[in-house]
Specification:
Chain lengths: ~300, ~280
């Protein structure tokens, strides 16, 4: 009797037991990552949001009860802060001008390398990719010398063709533009690799058919290449945009945000506020940046989705 | 006629590409050559390409007068620990997400994926508060811990593992192998290409990482190379051009060598994942 009873109990339990075992196995594989992830990523994301509604300062860390909730004060202060507004405009200009230039340069390089005429394709690909893998800090140090008004290579090249080059990083009219050009120089190789992969995915017979129909190179590019590359182009633009929104090392090393805040970026402003000990305020600024990044990503999904529906 | 037009087109294309290559690689060459010039020649107007007088004085300064051996070691230690951590933790979770069925799996994947969008600027202030309260500010643990488990690696490992047929794993299960044994003996060896890609990308990202070490390393015995270089370049050493250029070479050269040796794997990995 007893034996039969336990036997039935085990049988009833079996699916539940198996489910339990699966959960234990799955989570034992997931646990190491998840613990670190929760403590050092998930918790900080939430904490940052909470902090952005407080007046937390560096000096409060030992007296957590001195911290007050201040509602959206940090956010309203942010948008009346002339420095932040300047930083936001600079960052927007950097993204709006820098991203299209990067995409166009990458598209040109990818098409040139894909044209079939080119030998040594590997050499060019590796060469164009070099700046992508190197430290931005190191690149910024080198470019600071290249752009030096007297001893810099850039103005030396310009002088040879009779142009008197400006003080690139020391003049408010050229400082941000100089950093944009450097960013395009550093980043187009990354997109070029993605675009090359997309180009190689376009069926060759499409071009053959177009050639038979008498379409020229330019027409083929506009009617075949561009439309078929749309997802890759959008993806590249968004990835680059997300990176460019976080502009930080270049102005820090090259201009310290100057002259006259002409190269101050949002990230640099956040870092400065952190340095002043204004943790709550810095978190609010960081969340504004975060929202901009999420909006940009959402835009990509929207645009790609719109195409798929058609 | 068409042959001639093709030749012209090809020549023009080559000229443009070579010009582009010079513009991209030129600054690196100038950096390398100038780091061997005496201070006076680096500042000379007009600038020179080839050193008229070779000197190692800047490298001697970096390694003897300044603490660059220490920064180099710090960068290497941090990058190795971060890479090992990501290879291990991301492949464990990637395997669980791709091949094991457990409650909360989908939600976990979505949350980890969402974290890809979160910029370091949002994380570093609370991370700094946390690490300081744990007493880990200005320590190797503080430098490494927040980067041991990155979402990108999970994404990469999961995608790769989805392409491995279930039959292999099922067969081992039928043979009575435990889940951990299956993971170590069958799954990880199959993952070698993905692990190589993840390892290279993680190592480089850590080597070049700037914001976090800048914030958490407060005394110069814990600086990594980019932090030391950036602080020298805006501190009192900013006027020693040769020193800064040699410092940039020390930061860049190991990465360039790794990249040039492994470029095939590297560029393939990037093209397939579509991420930097």
């Amino acid at each position: 009797m007893v034996r039969a009873g336990t036997h039935r109990a085990v049988a009833e339990n079996r699916p539940a037991a198996r489910k339990w075992r699966r959960a234990v196995t799955g989570w034992s594989f997931a646990a190491p990552f998840t613990v670190l992830f929760v403590v050092f990523a998930l918790l900080p994301v939430v904490a940052s949001l909470v902090m952005s509604f407080t007046d937390l300062r560096a000096t409060d860390l030992r007296h957590p009860f001195a911290v007050n909730f201040v509602g959206i004060d940090n956010y309203t202060r942010l948008f009346s802060d002339a420095q932040f507004r300047r930083a936001a405009v600079n960052t927007a200009v950097f993204v709006v001008i820098g991203v299209p230039l990067t995409v166009v340069a990458a598209l040109a390089a990818a098409n040139a390398l894909n044209s079939g005429l080119i030998r040594l394709r590997g050499l060019f690909r590796v060469g164009f990719y070099l700046p992508v893998v190197t430290s931005i800090v190191a690149i910024a140090v080198v470019w600071r010398f290249l752009l030096d008004p007297g001893a810099g290579l850039v103005n030396d090249v310009l002088a040879r063709v009779g142009i008197d080059g400006p003080n690139w990083l020391g003049d408010t009219r050229t400082s941000l533009a100089s950093i944009i050009v450097m960013a395009v120089w550093r980043n187009f190789g990354a997109l070029m690799v993605i675009f090359l992969a997309a180009l190689q995915g376009i069926p060759v017979d499409l071009y053959e058919a177009a050639t038979l129909d008498g379409a020229g190179r330019w027409q083929q590019f506009r009617r075949i290449t561009l439309p078929l590359m749309r997802p890759a182009l959008l993806f590249g633009a968004v990835i680059t945009g997300i990176g460019f929104l976080q502009l930080f090392e270049e102005p820090l090393v090259m201009t310290q945000g100057g002259p006259l805040s002409s190269t101050l970026s949002v990230s640099y402003h956040i870092y400065n506020q952190f340095g002043f000990g204004n943790y709550g305020y810095a978190s609010a600024a960081a969340y504004v940046l975060f929202v901009a990044i999420v909006a940009l990503s959402a835009l990509q999904f929207r645009l790609l989705g719109a195409r798929d529906d058609r | 006629m068409t042959a001639r037009r093709d030749l012209i087109a090809r020549t023009v294309l080559y000229l443009i590409l070579i010009a582009g290559l010079l513009v991209v690689v030129g600054p690196f060459l100038w950096m390398l050559l100038s780091s061997f010039k005496p201070e006076g020649e680096i500042r000379s107007v007009p600038p020179t390409w080839w050193p008229s007088h070779w000197t190692l004085v800047h490298y001697r300064d970096l390694f003897a007068r300044l603490d660059f051996p220490r920064y180099f070691a710090n960068s290497a230690i941090v990058a190795v620990l971060v890479t090992v951590g990501n290879l291990l933790f991301c492949s464990l979770l990637g395997y669980a997400l791709a091949k094991l069925n457990f409650p909360g799996r989908k939600a976990l994947f979505l949350i980890v994926l969402g974290m890809l969008m979160v910029p370091g600027m949002v994380l570093f202030v609370p991370q700094f508060v946390l690490v300081s309260n744990l007493g880990l500010a200005n320590s190797y643990a503080g430098l490494v811990l927040p980067f041991l488990a990155g979402p990108f690696g999970v994404f990469l490992m999961r995608q790769f593992l989805l392409s491995i047929p279930d039959d292999l794993i099922e067969a081992a299960r039928v043979d009575g192998a435990g889940e951990w044994r299956i993971f170590w003996r069958i799954v990880l060896p199959l993952c070698r290409p993905a692990l190589a890609t993840l390892g290279i990308l993680t190592f480089l990202a850590s080597w070049n990482n700037f914001l976090w070490p800048l914030v958490v390393a407060t005394t110069d015995d814990k600086y990594t190379l980019p932090v030391a270089l950036a602080l020298y370049s805006i501190g009192q050493n900013r006027i020693y051009f040769g020193l800064l250029l040699a410092g940039a070479v020390v930061v860049v050269l190991p990465v360039l060598i790794v990249f040039l040796v492994l470029q095939r794997q590297f560029l393939r990995g990037i093209a397939t994942t579509g991420l930097k």
